[in-house]
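Database export, one record per block. Field names are fixed; values are copied verbatim from the stored entry.
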Amino acid sequence: MAGIKVRTDPVTRTNLGEHTLAALRVQLRAVNCQTCGRPFLRWQRPALALYADGEYAEASLHHVGCHRPGWHEGWIDPFLDRQHLGWRAVTCVLPARSMLGLSSEDIPFFLVNPSFEAALLHNRDGKGWRVWTVEFFKELGLDLRGSTAVQSAGPTPALAASIEDHRISVTVRMGRVHHHWPDVPLFPQTARLARSRGSIAVGVTTRLDVHQGLSRPQIAAGATSGSMAVGVAALAPEGKGRPRRKR
């Protein structure tokens, strides 16, 4: 995949290298500017900004008029709250035997792309920068071996889920890390299976375009390819997942 076209500067291209820059172009999607929050127009080439702190960095997309492309040392607060960061999630049931090679019952599955316009990078042991968004979730206890994750004896401690009516919300929480993906539509079959199991498998990907319609074989292939972090979220008792809305 060629990925999106972005505006970069010579320092960024030198620091990242062409291979990592190409991987970023594939992962990132120009939806909303991470400075102003307004959408990109189809013809606009976003500016790629990199903020590095030691062996970690974050890449993000911006309107050229909001933020010039470039490499910066140190984090700055406006990008840490991620208030403009886009994400998308879908739910489905994956046949365990035919698609995951398991002997267990079918698996209720929550698939999320958590980061359209930003990506984490890691420069481990000074060996060069690489895209690290999905691997970051592995550090939180998810597994890059999808089949292993859904066969685990218990839920992933960092994950939690709650169902309200025909929607599900999933939270990742560990220390200062907090991601929340609320109110994702839940098909009745998926809801029944999740309730009967008391849990739902969660897959985190940046490679599959969740904005487009994905088939179950595509999702299953991603879950077993090593490019998706998979865990199991325990369901909260219904009515206790979050405060009820006032009417």
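Remark 1: The two ends are 47 Å apart (CA to CA).
Remark 2: The CA atoms of residues 50 and 59 lie 4 Å apart.
End of record.
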